[in-house]
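Page 37, continued from 36.
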């Protein structure tokens, strides 16, 4: 599908050693407007990801049983990589317990073969919606960190004390500077981080600042 804002194609990866299943899913999903990329095994999928934009909105649908790396193992590898994305496992009748275990480990859902077209489309849309939200959060975090990086060492000292709950007079005493200087630093911090209220300031720092 395409986002309204960017019209950028959203990618659905299909990883399955069954060529007929790959072809069937690609035909079905491309007919629905998705950009589909198929891979016959986990290794080839992971290799292809190395040349893929990490910010792309994507999800992966993978067979739980494949030669070499299984769908379970692939999900684990993917969840620890820089290309994290929502995943769904395709299962046979005897694989339900494995799929449940994968969901406990973070897989978004599983779908049992044979599945209905509507069922598949619904779960893929849920995954892509989650990918959109994750993408938005990642972008917001990146932008916030860029703004935080513009603070001077003194502004960071002031900010650290504000976040710790110190009032302006206490910050001035801590740093041996005047109250007016603290107020000026605080105003500069608010401007640089593009926030208007103390609550927004705290939210930005607590949510997005990297640990020292």
């Amino acid at each position: 599908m395409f986002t309204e804002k960017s019209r950028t194609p959203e990618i659905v990866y299909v990883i399955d050693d069954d060529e007929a299943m790959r072809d069937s899913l690609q035909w079905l999903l491309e007919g629905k407007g998705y950009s589909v990329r198929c891979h016959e095994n986990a290794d080839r999928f992971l290799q292809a990801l190395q040349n893929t934009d990490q910010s792309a909105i994507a999800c992966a649908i993978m067979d739980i049983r494949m030669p070499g790396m299984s769908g379970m193992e692939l999900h684990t590898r993917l969840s620890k990589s820089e290309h994290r994305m929502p995943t769904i496992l395709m299962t046979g009748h005897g694989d339900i317990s494995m799929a449940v275990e994968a969901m406990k480990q973070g897989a978004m859902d599983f779908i049992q073969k044979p599945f209905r077209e509507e069922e598949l489309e619904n779960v893929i849309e849920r995954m892509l919606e989650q990918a959109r939200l994750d993408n938005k959060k990642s972008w917001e975090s990146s932008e916030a960190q860029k703004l935080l990086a513009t603070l001077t060492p003194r502004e960071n000292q002031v900010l650290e004390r504000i976040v710790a709950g110190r009032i302006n007079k206490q910050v001035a005493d801590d740093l041996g500077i005047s109250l007016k200087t603290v107020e000026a630093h605080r105003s500069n911090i608010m401007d640089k981080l593009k926030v208007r209220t103390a609550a927004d300031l705290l939210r930005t720092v607590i949510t997005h600042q990297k640990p020292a």
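DSSP finds nine helices and five strands in the chain. Flag for discussion at group meeting. Residues 42 and 183 are 56 Å apart (CA to CA).
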